[in-house]
């Protein structure tokens, strides 16, 4: 249990609760949920520029990271076709992968296929079910993809000024503006209460909010004097109580709750908002192909990690379809911007390719 780990090392409740947020990020879990300690470990493993457990902003926004990978690939002869939806994986007479078919009818032939899509899309939508073992299909269907995350992107006309650390007179960003700011984290019980509300189908009345201002470090993301604010919030259930869906009214009501909370910490924030983009779990699924809106392609719970990710006997990136590999967040070791799953899958695919 995460709570026991934090109680062992720390006394301050706000500090424990703030650290606890990284144990429940993207997880429909509470700090009191068994296994939550691993999610915290997952978020502090690795290093950035020699600093263990450190995180950083990508200059130009997260899309710049994808572009950097794309440029590295094309420099070595890769061809990238963006906005070309894959309809299904092409299979040979013996059930082996032979390429992909696009929705416009184009067929791209290849000896190997690596899928960065979720296990659900890869195996339940792109492959005929009769080509897969029944127990494997059942396992993929049973993966827990519940997600508590609603992401809100905000454009503001001035830097938020927090009561705890008011802005400088010149309005320039201070050190705390360049960090991850955690709100509604005064105690772990608050996080547990927010989680409990979501399990009953209600968006948290006092949501956990992780607030980042990337433009404080990367001014090119916004016009002079303005800023972009990224809000990672939870807990929001995929389906609301009574089977209600996330209509415009429900989305705006939850966003208003989030903004009211920020206003308590930084008066004037609501008046500074120029525009907002609200992405609930169903939106994250529809737009980005995240099953259930889960940023990790499936819960990072102990029963869905290591040799069980995405399914027992298939944690080594190979799949029941010869020549088809899983290389995204649904593969070992899971989600996060670290590239471990892709690197590992590439090494397995290269090893196999040499024998073709």
Can you describe this structure in just a few lines?
By secondary structure, this protein is of the alpha+beta class.
**DSSP E strands, number:** 12
Secondary structure class reads alpha+beta
As a percent range, the share of helical residues equals 25-40%
Please mark out the parts with pLDDT under 50 across 5 or more consecutive residues, or reply none.
Answer: none
Structurally, how many domains make up the residues? 2
Largest sheet: 5 strands, antiparallel
Element string (H = helix, E = strand): HHHEEHEEEEHHEEHEEHHEHEH
Q: Strand arrangement, largest sheet?
A: 8-9-10-7-11
Mean pLDDT across residues:
94
Shape category: globular
The Cα radius of gyration reads 22 Å
Strand content: 15-25%
Count of alpha and pi helical runs: 11
Taking the alpha carbons of the first and last residues, their distance comes to 47 Å
Task: Please describe what this structure looks like.
The protein has 356 residues and is α+β, with helices and mostly antiparallel strands. The chain is built from 11 helices and 12 strands. Helices cover 31% and strands 15% of the residues. The mean pLDDT is 94.
Features:
356 residues, alpha+beta, FAD/NAD(P)-binding domain, 2 domains, 11 helices, globular, flavoprotein, FAD/NAD-bd_sf, Pyridine nucleotide-disulfide oxidoreductase domain-containing protein 2
Set down the secondary structure blueprint.
Elements (H helix, E strand, L loop, with lengths): L1 H8 L3 H12 L11 H9 L2 E2 L2 E2 L10 H12 L11 E6 L5 E6 L4 E3 L3 E3 L3 H6 L9 H9 L7 E7 L24 E3 L4 H12 L8 E5 L14 E8 L13 H18 L3 H4 E7 L1 H8 L35 E3 L13 H14 L3
Parallel strand pairs: 6-12
Antiparallel strand pairs: 1-2, 3-4, 4-5, 7-10, 7-11, 8-9, 9-10
Keywords: FAD, Flavoprotein
Protein name: Pyridine nucleotide-disulfide oxidoreductase domain-containing protein 2
Pfam families: Amino_oxidase
């Amino acid at each position: 249990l995460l709570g026991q780990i934090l109680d062992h090392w720390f006394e301050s409740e706000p500090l424990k609760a703030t650290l606890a947020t990284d144990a429940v990020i993207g997880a429909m879990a509470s700090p009191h949920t068994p296994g939550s300690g691993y999610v915290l470990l997952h978020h502090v493993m690795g290093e950035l520029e020699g600093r263990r457990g450190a995180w950083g902003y990508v200059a130009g926004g997260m899309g710049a990271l994808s572009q950097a990978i794309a440029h590295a690939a094309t420099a070595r002869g890769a061809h990238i076709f963006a906005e070309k939806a894959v309809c299904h994986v092409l299979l040979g007479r013996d059930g082996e992968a032979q390429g992909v078919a696009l929705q416009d009818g184009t067929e791209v032939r290849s000896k190997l296929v690596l899928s960065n899509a979720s296990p659900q899309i890869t195996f339940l939508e792109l492959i005929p079910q009769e080509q897969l073992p029944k127990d494997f299909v059942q396992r993929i269907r049973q993966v827990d993809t519940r997600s508590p995350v609603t992401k809100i992107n905000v454009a503001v006309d001035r830097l938020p000024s927090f009561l705890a650390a008011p802005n400088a007179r010149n309005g320039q960003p201070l050190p705390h503006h360049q960090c991850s700011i955690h709100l509604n984290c005064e105690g772990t019980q608050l996080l547990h209460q927010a989680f409990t509300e979501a399990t009953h189908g209600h968006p948290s009345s006092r949501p956990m909010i992780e607030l980042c201002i990337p433009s404080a470090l990367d001014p090119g993301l916004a016009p002079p004097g303005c800023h972009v604010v990224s809000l990672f919030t939870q807990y929001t259930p995929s389906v609301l109580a009574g089977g209600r869906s996330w209509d415009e009214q429900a989305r705006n009501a939850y966003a208003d709750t989030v903004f009211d909370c920020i206003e308590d910490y930084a008066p004037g924030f609501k008046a500074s908002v120029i525009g907002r983009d609200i992405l609930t779990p169903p939106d994250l699924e529809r737009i980005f192909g995240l099953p259930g809106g889960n940023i990790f392609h499936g819960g990072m719970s102990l029963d869905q990690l290591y040799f069980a990710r995405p399914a027992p006997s298939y944690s080594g990136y190979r799949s029941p379809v010869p020549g088809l590999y899983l290389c995204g967040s649904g593969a070992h070791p899971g989600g996060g911007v670290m590239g471990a799953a892709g690197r590992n899958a590439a090494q397995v695919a290269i090893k196999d390719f040499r024998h073709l």
